Amino acid sequence: MVDHVRDASRPDFLSKPSLGGEQVLLRPVTADDMPALMPMLMDAETSRLTGSHDDGPLDERRIHAWYESRRQQDDRLDLAVVELATGSIVGEVVLNGWDPGNESCSFRICLVPGTYGSGLGTEATRLTVGYGFEKLGLHRISLEVYAFNPRARRAYEKAGFVAEGVLRDALLWEGERVDATVMSILAPEWFQHGGRPATAGHTAG
To answer: Which of 89, 133, 145, 171 is the most buried (most CB within 10 A)?
Structure first.
């Protein structure tokens, strides 16, 4: 029987890190985190901001199995966001959509209702992006943010993401068509600014 041998040139997504900041700790998400994350998954406003259409009642067994399997994923990273001041799980961050040919990933973050606006999401974003560039060796990390979510866009800009363009009418939500802005951050930009956000002029979109 041959053990799994990791290609040295391939990002090591299978090693799930714990990343500490001033306000949050990011650690591997598990099925035990599901009760704390369920308010996020059930929140109507969160569904709107993320463009998640209603697929019917949540299947808790399926959700449990999903979180239980996150540690075994070798092409993505799913981490729980823990607020250090309270020890509470306040959301999750994800690097997914790994494109090996272009050394890129997509990023998403979702927080539990009531935890917005305190800088937790911005720090969690910076920690994840830094890990993606410094440890996984990614070149580009991208995301999409809907036009009706300016708060999230500002948080992404604070973390160094740059607006690239607009996907017109990307979402149909309750009869309204909504644009999405594509944003990204590149490894040279991250290292040039020492892991800090670029200047306001650089992030303007």
So the answer is: 145
